[in-house]
Write a structure and sequence with these properties.
Helix content of chain B: 55-70%
Mean pLDDT of chain B: 78
Order of helices and strands of chain A: HHHHHHHHEEEEEEEEEEEEHH
Largest sheet of chain A: 6 strands, antiparallel
Distance between the termini of chain A: 29 Å
Structural class of chain A: alpha+beta
CATH superfamily of chain A: Jelly Rolls
Oligomer: heterodimer
Distance between the termini of chain B: 58 Å
CATH class of chain A: Mainly Beta
Low-confidence stretches of chain A: 91-110, 225-232
Low-confidence stretches of chain B: 1-16, 127-142
Shape of chain B: elongated
Structural class of chain B: mainly alpha
Number of domains of chain B: 2
Number of helices of chain A: 10
Helix content of chain A: 25-40%
CATH class of the largest domain in chain B: Mainly Alpha
Strand content of chain A: 15-25%
Number of strands of chain A: 12
CATH topology of chain A: Jelly Rolls
Largest interface: A-B, 63 and 69 residues
Number of domains of chain A: 1
Chain lengths: 243, 207
């Protein structure tokens, strides 16, 4: 069972579209694996929608926005939108048919699912990663990494594979480190983690994960200051690999 | 129809949920758009959602022109995808909210980074998702040179739109002002130009 989840504040920022893209990707990947968070996200989305589209707020507090949306602008937009060409296929589908959707869903998700190979087999990736490409695996000892080619400032998103009995030496973080366990299990000073667990650490934490049976994680490391504060880490090949 | 919206405030103390009449009305309008492409129903939806989408846009994008674009893009999706809305799966407001949030998220990312990856459909998957996006063709930077050659072969009016949007990074609204043409014309020229480009790129791949 999944024990570690994103906090409610993180989920709320997630559904509002306020998280940085790579953080949103790793949160989304957890939600895909976690029924509990799926339910919570659905509820939070409903609440956010209610709030965004509440009528009386507009009327009483925000007359400027109301006026700024003048009638000629909205008329132009409406006309423009309604003259958009429509796909033939969309019109055919326009009477939704429950059976039809059930047929489509599994095919659709399979089509989008990306599978990554590693030296011990294959791993289907969370759907949030389907538009990203990973660089080839690089490894030192029992630890290997495949970094996603994705530009999000100082945040780096990677797959981290630790073979049976492997360990990452004790380290701290100058930024944040988010880990989502995709396969296998590992333990550190704070506990044992299973598939689906979502672990968000910041510089207050020190840990040295170790795995009995091997594991593959999706990791997000933000370490803007690593050139000064983490200098010694850069001299060590494992540090270089992970950061 | 209007009265139930105007009296919304009275329900506020009872519950945060949208009052039943309003949410039924929104669903009816969406249904009429889906089934009959009902223009009156769409106008009602637009008048209800547009100012609020704009407010959301201003708070996230910090820019009025971009917020107007968010309104136009979100409401275009409502028009095109109305048939995918299923009242049994959730409220109309929730459905429109996700379209708006996703469009806004992709816009923000495109403002910040030069790549053109649309991630929102992957991050917030919906089993109703369907590909409508025009821009996924341009991911590969190696294609740039080829694209440039194709752009030069477009009619001048379309060239100026493409260049304004993609090279000078003007918003479509700024471009409309600059060229002295309606926003709608900018959008339709852009669409036309993009579909021509796609066609040409495709043709060349077969060479």
């Amino acid at each position: 069972m999944i024990k570690q989840h994103p906090t409610q504040a993180v989920l709320r920022a997630f559904i509002q579209g306020d998280l940085d893209p790579s953080v949103a990707i790793i949160v989304s990947s957890h939600i895909e694996m976690c029924e509990q968070c799926q339910k919570e996200v659905n509820q939070l989305t409903e609440i956010a929608a209610e709030k965004a589209f509440e009528q009386d707020i507009m009327d009483s507090f925000d007359p400027c926005t109301h006026q700024a949306f003048d009638s000629s602008l909205s008329k132009n937009m409406i006309d423009e939108i309604m003259s958009l060409p429509l796909d033939e296929s969309m019109i055919e589908e326009s009477v939704p048919n429950q059976e039809m959707y059930e047929d489509i869903e599994p095919a659709h998700s399979e089509q989008n699912q990306k599978i990554i190979s590693h030296k011990d087999g294959h791993l289907p990736l969370p759907r949030a990663l389907s538009s990203l490409d990973a660089a080839p695996w690089q490894g030192v000892g029992k630890v290997s990494r495949a970094r996603f080619q994705f530009n999000d400032d100082e945040r780096r998103l990677s797959l981290l594979k630790i073979d049976k009995g492997g360990q990452i030496p004790q380290h701290t973080h100058t930024g944040i480190e988010i880990t989502l366990l995709l396969e296998g299990s590992f333990e550190d000073d704070m506990g044992t983690y299973q598939k689906g667990d979502f672990i968000w650490l910041d510089k207050a934490h020190t840990h040295s994960p170790i795995t009995q049976d091997g594991c593959i994680c999706l990791t997000l490391v933000s370490d803007a200051l690593h050139f000064t504060q983490g200098f010694s880490k850069l001299l060590n090949p494992l540090g270089k690999l992970i950061y | 129809m209007h009265t139930s919206i105007k009296t919304f405030g009275k329900y506020k103390d009872d519950s945060i949920a949208t009052p039943p009449q309003l949410s039924t009305e929104l669903c009816c309008w969406l249904n009429s758009v889906a089934k009959q492409r009902d223009k009156k129903a769409f106008t009602e939806l637009f008048n209800f959602f547009a100012p609020k989408i704009k407010r959301f846009g201003i708070s996230k994008l910090n820019n009025e022109a971009m917020a107007n674009e968010l309104v136009q893009d979100t409401m275009s999706l409502v028009w095109k995808k109305a048939h995918l809305f299923e009242a049994s799966k959730g409220a109309a407001t929730t459905w429109v909210y996700t379209l708006m949030r996703n469009t806004c998220f992709d816009t923000l990312r495109k403002m910040k980074h030069k790549d053109n990856i649309s991630l929102s459909d992957d991050i917030w998957p919906s089993d109703l998702t369907e590909e409508l996006s025009d821009d996924s063709e341009f991911k590969d930077h190696l294609l740039n040179e080829k694209v440039l050659r194709c752009i030069d072969s477009l009619p001048l009016a379309q060239q100026s739109i493409i260049k304004g949007v993609y090279y000078q990074e003007l918003t479509q609204e700024q471009l409309a002002k600059q060229l002295g043409i309606p926003l709608g014309t900018v959008k339709s020229r852009l669409r036309l130009a993009l579909s021509k480009l796609k066609q040409q790129m495709g043709d060349r791949d077969h060479d």
